[in-house]
Write a structure and sequence with these properties.
By secondary structure, the protein is of the alpha/beta class. It folds into 2 domains: 37 residues, no CATH class; 119 residues, no CATH class. Helix content is 28%, strand content 30%. The strands form 2 sheets. A 5-stranded mixed sheet has the order 5-4-6-7-8. It has a 3-stranded antiparallel sheet with strand order 1-2-3, with no helix packed on it. It starts with 17 loop residues before the first strand and ends in a 7-residue tail after the last strand.
Length: 163
Amino acid sequence: MTPKNPFIGTQCRCGGYLIPVGVAEAYCDACGETYRVELIVNLTQHSPTGEQIEAGVFDLPDKEREELRKLLTFDELPDLSEIERRAEKIAALASKTRAKAAMIGGAPFLMGPLEDALLEEGIEPVYAFSRRVSEEVTGPDGTVTKIQKFRHVGFVRPYVGVI
């Protein structure tokens, strides 16, 4: 379950090309500058945005992603043991990756136990932070349509320095 290196096909600030090294590093063939990105496994029901992928977020492989979706979906009122069981299974999926952090989100009653289970695996739980941006688009007939977009700003890291 190794993610694709996000530096493939990108250029350095100096104009040189980045040569990927492993899954989270690259160096510039012109100036030698090294780039690194933190690997963050996506443990939400949503696909990561382009901005989140650039920040190092990656999805689980299809089979594990489907298992994750089932674990995140509650069709019946769960008791604490069911919540903890699912949190442990989700954390086990994350531990099979090389990620040191996991982007989480979903049912609020699951997040605390999931944070605990991830921390036990040595994985930092993080939350995506987005800013709503409004844009107005003028159509050919002069009508104006307002569009709301969410822009990834960064990650809320309640456990930074704990691991």
